[in-house]
């Protein structure tokens, strides 16, 4: 890279403290949870060299351009930037602050996401006297201690139970349903001729023969979007269902959202290969485990922020909740309707269905029922097996869905 | 064709001036990231809601630099043949037959003759790698989120090495890398591997001041007072709890619509009648009833004076 012809002549960034500071800054961001690889670090130094260090704002957006790769990361970046570049501490001092992070095999305590910035600065095994200061610092960011306790509770579920559930869920034969994509692949029985392959095959014979090759649409497993209620009344069922979703995600695209009082996307966390690690990560992300539930608000949040992003590939939506919503009003029905219209099939899994005499009396349940394509129990392994069988059944066309709903009412 | 601006622009300010001169009003953040993308020769991924002006960045850049704009509109099922290149099969077959008729029998020779540049049809990606007398073109890969992961994987080679491998022909590499702008509406998450190769910027809804500047730059025929009202109303509308809030494109449409209707000021009836220009979901339109509109207009009236 030639030296930048910037109007404000500056020392190249790789000399002096600036480069070192950028590297520390990058490490802080990484510790705070951003994906910062060595390539990005190099980019950052180059970028600052190219842009020249003008105002603080320019430095901010220059580093932002390089480090932030997801809109969601903006706030973390903002927080780290504000603390780091305000501080103007010498690099060595920062290194000192950082060093506890590098202590090998330090037992990692469960920490809610909002604390990550603070922890990136203070390290994990911070001295007790800093602890007090810490409380005053991050009061505005931290989830309540009760949430932490709840999270811990989940992480400590009995190993026996976990092993058994995992073994049996892993042994489930997963559904073989597929949907057609618009991408074409080589297919001897496909409907479309594949000229390119034909011509290549023809050349093998010097052009004497022209064997007709064909292409057809590629099929792939139907994506699944799961909306899982983790309120207090659902606590016993959320865990096995999460295991099920984790197993399902090994074969197909699964987007998982948890909701209690608010909606959390845990898709990335659940992608961890090891189920235990995945579930630990999930519990870490969710502050309102075993709290109350606000179905309408959560569905609205999903429809507004996520539906366009995860429902674009016409997935099956699994809504796992008991539907016990106190403040059920017309918005619940409205959001359910919108959800159903934007997916292939809306399946409601309700553990209350385990009672043989179950009747949909609760207002919430009555408001939601007209908009589901399938209403089934989810309280034991047998019901999970039945779910698998139902998922493998061919999708119901949209017109058919309407009729089904009319029949129920 | 406009005068060739100096490339790459020497500073962030110069980048900002370059775009403003061509009718796009960028904020400092966008100017910075664009400046970096141009200086570092890296693709730029722009994400943001529909209608905030992501595509327009590429268009303006091409216009301002006097470069060719090559646009690849993404769609589901887009493959190599549609995006990079395709062979001209009928011509190839005729060539084979002619070779046969001429008595050629060397398979390798026929193959190399048939799979040569002559029979190659270039699609946008390959086209963008070709040398251009006006300078490397601006390659716009629009709405990347509409393709599937398989296509993204293919793009990786283009984005980091500015080259495309054609099995029958070899690797085509750009002598001077094109300026690449990718846009995404986030109907799907873009893979990390692709993001890593790009600089990233989230294009947000503009502030009232910037939106007014945009309106002035794009639609100078709209009276000042009306522009102010339009911007203030749209800004107030964006604070409402809507399923899809209007973008800049909708603001421009609405201002143009009001001028068509010979309006000099926004009144409740007019706003009600033209709401479909701003809001595209029935639920949102139903929610924005007469009472809401008069409340929004009140807010807008107070705010309009404050916009510089």
Automatic annotation (TrEMBL), chain B:
Task: Give one GO molecular function term.
Answer: ATP binding
**Residue span, AAA+ ATPase domain:** 40-218
Output the InterPro entries linked to this UniProt entry.
Answer: AAA+_ATPase, ATPase_AAA_core, CbbQ/NirQ/NorQ/GpvN, P-loop_NTPase
Superkingdom to which the source organism belongs: Bacteria
Q: A Pfam family name for this chain?
A: AAA
**Classification via SUPFAM superfamilies:** P-loop containing nucleoside triphosphate hydrolases
Q: What is this protein called?
A: AAA ATPase
What is the native source organism of this protein? Azorhizobium caulinodans (strain ATCC 43989 / DSM 5975 / JCM 20966 / LMG 6465 / NBRC 14845 / NCIMB 13405 / ORS 571)
Lineage of origin? Bacteria, Pseudomonadati, Pseudomonadota, Alphaproteobacteria, Hyphomicrobiales
């Amino acid at each position: 890279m030639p030296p930048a012809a910037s109007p404000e002549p500056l020392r190249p960034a790789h000399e002096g403290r600036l480069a070192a500071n950028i590297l520390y800054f990058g490490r802080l961001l990484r510790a705070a949870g951003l994906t910062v690889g060595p390539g990005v670090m190099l980019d950052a130094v180059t970028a600052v060299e190219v842009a020249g260090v003008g105002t603080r704002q320019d430095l901010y957006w220059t580093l932002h351009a390089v480090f932030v790769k997801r809109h969601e990361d903006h706030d973390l970046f903002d927080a780290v930037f504000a603390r780091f570049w305000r501080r103007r501490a010498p690099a060595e001092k920062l290194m000192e602050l950082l060093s506890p992070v590098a202590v090998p095999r330090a037992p990692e305590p469960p920490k809610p996401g909002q604390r990550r910035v603070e922890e990136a600065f203070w390290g994990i095994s911070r001295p007790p006297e800093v602890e007090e200061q810490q409380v005053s610092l991050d009061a505005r960011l931290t989830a309540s201690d009760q949430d932490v306790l709840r999270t811990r509770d989940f992480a400590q579920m009995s190993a026996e139970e976990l092993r058994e559930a995992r073994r049996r869920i892993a042994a489930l034969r997963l559904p073989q349903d597929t949907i057609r994509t618009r991408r074409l692949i080589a297919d001897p029985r496909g409907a479309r001729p594949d000229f390119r392959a034909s011509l290549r095959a023809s050349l093998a014979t010097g052009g004497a023969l022209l064997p007709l090759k064909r292409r057809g649409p590629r099929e792939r497993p139907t994506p699944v979007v799961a909306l899982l209620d983790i309120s207090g009344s659902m606590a016993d069922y959320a865990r096995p269902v999460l295991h099920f979703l984790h197993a399902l995600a090994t074969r197909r695209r699964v987007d998982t959202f948890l909701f209690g009082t608010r909606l959390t996307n845990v898709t990335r966390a659940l992608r961890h290969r090891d189920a235990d690690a995945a579930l630990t990560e999930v519990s870490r992300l969710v502050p309102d485990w075993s709290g109350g539930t606000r179905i309408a608000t959560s569905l609205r949040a999903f429809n507004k922020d996520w539906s366009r992003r995860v429902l674009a590939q016409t997935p099956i939506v699994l809504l796992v909740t008991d539907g016990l919503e106190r403040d059920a009003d017309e918005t619940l029905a409205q959001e359910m309707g919108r959800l159903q219209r934007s997916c292939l099939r809306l399946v409601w899994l309700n553990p209350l269905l385990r009672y043989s005499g179950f009747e949909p009396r609760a207002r919430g349940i009555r408001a939601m029922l007209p908009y589901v394509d399938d209403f089934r129990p989810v309280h034991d392994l047998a019901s999970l097996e039945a779910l698998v069988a139902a998922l493998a059944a061919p999708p119901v066309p949209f017109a058919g869905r309407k009729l089904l709903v009319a029949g129920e009412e | 064709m406009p005068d060739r601006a100096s490339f790459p622009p020497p500073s962030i300010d110069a980048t900002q001036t370059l775009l403003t001169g061509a009718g796009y009003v960028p904020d400092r953040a966008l100017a910075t990231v664009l400046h970096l993308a141009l200086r570092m020769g890296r693709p730029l991924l722009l994400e943001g809601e529909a209608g905030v002006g992501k595509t327009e960045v590429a268009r303006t850049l091409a216009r301002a630099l006097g470069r060719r704009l090559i646009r690849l509109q993404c769609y589901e099922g887009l493959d190599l043949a549609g995006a990079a290149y395709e062979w001209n099969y009928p011509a190839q077959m005729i060539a084979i037959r002619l070779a046969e008729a001429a008595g050629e029998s060397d398979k390798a020779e026929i193959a190399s003759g048939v799979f040569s540049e002559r029979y190659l049809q270039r699609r946008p990606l390959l086209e963008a790698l070709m040398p251009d007398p006006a300078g490397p073109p601006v390659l716009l890969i629009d709405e990347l989120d509409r393709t599937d992961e398989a296509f993204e994987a293919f793009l990786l080679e283009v984005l980091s090495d500015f080259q495309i491998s054609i099995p029958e022909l070899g690797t085509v590499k750009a002598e001077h890398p094109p300026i690449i702008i990718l846009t995404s509406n986030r109907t799907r998450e873009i893979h990390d591997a692709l993001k890593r190769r790009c600089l990233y910027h989230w294009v947000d809804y503009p502030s009232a001041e910037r939106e007014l500047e945009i309106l002035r730059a794009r639609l100078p025929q709209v009276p000042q007072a009306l522009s102010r009202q339009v911007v203030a109303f749209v800004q107030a509308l964006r604070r409402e709890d809507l399923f899809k809030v209007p973008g800049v494109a909708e603001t421009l449409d609405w201002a143009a619509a009001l001028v068509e209707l010979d309006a000099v000021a926004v009144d409740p009836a007019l706003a009600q009648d033209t709401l479909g220009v701003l809001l595209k979901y029935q639920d949102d339109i139903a929610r924005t009833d007469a009472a809401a509109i008069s409340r929004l207009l009140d807010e807008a009236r107070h705010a309009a004076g404050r916009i510089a």
